[in-house]
Amino acid sequence: MRAVVSSCAGPLCAAARSVIPSIWRGKYFSSGNEPAENNPVTPMLRHLMYKIKSTGPITVAEYMKEVLTNPAKGYYVYRDMLGEKGDFITSPEISQIFGELLGIWFISEWMATGRSVAFQLVELGPGRGTLVGDILRVFSQLGSVLKNCDISIHLVEVSQKLSEIQALTLIEEKVPLEQNAGSPVYMKGVTKSGIPIFWYRDLQDVPKGYSFYLAHEFFDVLPVHKFQKTPQGWREVFVDVDPEVSDKLRFVLAPCATPAAAFIQHDETRDHVEVCPDAGVIIQELSQRIALTGGAALIADYGHDGTKTDTFRGFCGHKLHDVLIAPGTADLTADVDFSYLRRMAQGKVASLGPIKQQTFFKNMGIDVRLKRLHGGRHQMNACQSKTSAFPVAGFSELAWQ
Ligand SMILES: C[S@@+](CC[C@H](N)C(=O)[O-])C[C@H]1O[C@@H](n2cnc3c(N)ncnc32)[C@H](O)[C@@H]1O
Where does the signal sequence lie (predicted)? Predict the structure, then answer.
């Protein structure tokens, strides 16, 4: 996993919908030949088969978007997939130290940039709300430092199920949660530490103002277009119905150039690439906001710096899962191309990284925190239970008192 402190934007080529070419090469890419019993016909598979039979093969980006966030059947919309009983586990679910050190990082940025009278903490894709809960605990413990600062929390989340879990994790029960499914602000309440908290489906709806933005394992679930270099030029990978096996999908190559190829660099040397226009749009929005009203963004994710080729994969029950089998039952992800994010952020605000998470947390004093939390005897691992009874990392090292 890597982190980048990000920044600004240049104009992004328009992301037009792919033209559906008329001739398709029936070439398999990476989907395995699973036996029929391992290929259950899920409601999402039925939906996709119908869609493809009606209008033709779909891009990998469209496939990913439908499978993960379709409002009726999407993987993320109605289930809690995080944790030991789910499909994958994330760092904040493993240890409170992760969120605590990020909380310290935000406060140190706030101090370094002149202690604004107010700031918004905006998290994209907050999962179970654990990370922001750990950050808020740091804010409470550093109440004397933040006492004159007006803080609000803004969560960007498309999942109904996860937003309910976030509310349970974060809000003060005595203050009624306001809900309005039809409004851009679909929930609002007050956190256990008395801070106003708001939920949105789209970053565009978050009010502009001095803000710290956080995205942890969010960019890797955004839809990617996949391309292969051929003697005829870049050709996009699409998802089609397999004509030889019933209820099965397969990958095919488009017979001619498609619009998303505009996102590939002219001097690209790899023979397979993945591009994520949605990530570019979000980085541009973050950059414009930061340039206009101040703040910073921290992006932490699995990723590379423009070097990897085929990273699209699925996870189910903590195991790798064929991306075309039983769609809607497994998480789909592709590594984040940080070189692309940097390009999209170029010019308006400063951009740092990516650096390895290990380096970032060492710089933030994780070793000291681990010693304090576990008496120097134990290593951090996925089975440790979370506890909040210990002081927050970095306190004595930072000269704030
Ligand atoms: C892999 S989980 C990461 C959760 C959390 N950040 C963590 O580290 O535990 C991805 C999160 O992004 C949300 N999400 C996925 N696509 C989204 C989108 N297009 N807009 C907003 N949230 C999205 C999911 O519902 C989920 O909360």
Answer: none
